[in-house]
Specification:
The chain is of the alpha/beta class. The chain contains seven helices and seven strands. Strand 1, helix 3 and strand 2 form a beta-alpha-beta unit.
């Protein structure tokens, strides 16, 4: 069944082609500017908007405990097919509130949001940042990428700046400690990306 989540519009019908596109780039290539900040010891990870599971799989191979959250059933099934041999806990849930995941009252050392944030409107981003902060363990990190450029036909996207995202994160106890800008990994000349690393400080340090 195709997802009715607004930000996921257009993804279900093209799940197979999109999964192939996602898998054509490695996790290390995507996060080349932030990869030195990821935990070196096994950690708890949640990949929100996991798509084909490329990033979840890479992190699971390193011994991390990984939850992959993907609202589009067709993409989730592609991910399970491609990476079924890995101990990834797949979950049907979505931003902005992540109600299913939050009911488990778990917190994660790493929260990953790859090419997800630009699907949320301003009100949704406010709710989503609250949810993300609630899922992040003390001293845990949030890694996210923001897409800048023309909106593809049939997609719901918004122009979200890194600066606005950093300010919003700070209001929810997440402090930016690394920021990078780079070209599009698929070679699109009119698309660029921002990458942010946010850290949730211990309550006494906020």
């Amino acid at each position: 069944m195709t997802s009715t989540v607004p930000g996921a519009a257009g993804y279900g019908a093209n799940a197979s082609a999109l999964a192939s596109q996602y898998e054509s780039i490695t996790f290390a290539e995507v996060y080349r500017d932030l990869i030195h900040l990821f935990p070196t010891q096994p950690a708890t990870v949640v990949d929100i908007g996991a798509g084909s599971g490329r990033d979840a799989a890479a992190l699971a191979r390193c011994g991390n405990q990984v939850v992959a959250v993907e609202p589009t059933g067709e993409l989730r099934r592609e991910g399970q097919r491609l990476h079924g041999a890995l101990p990834i806990d797949w979950m049907d849930d979505h931003l902005p509130t992540l109600d299913v995941l939050r009911q488990a009252k778990r917190r994660f050392d790493v929260v990953l949001l790859t090419a997800v944030w630009m699907h949320l409107d301003p009100q949704e981003r406010e709710l989503a940042m609250e949810a993300v902060a609630a899922l992040t363990a003390e001293n845990g990190q949030v890694f996210m990428s923001l897409r800048h450029g023309p909106i593809p036909e049939g997609r719901r996207m918004f122009d979200v700046s890194a600066e606005d995202t950093v300010r919003l994160a700070a209001r929810h106890g997440l402090r930016c400690h690394h920021q990078a800008e780079r070209e599009d990994m698929l070679g699109r000349a009119d698309v660029r990306w921002s990458f942010l690393a946010l850290r949730r400080l211990a309550a006494s340090a906020e």
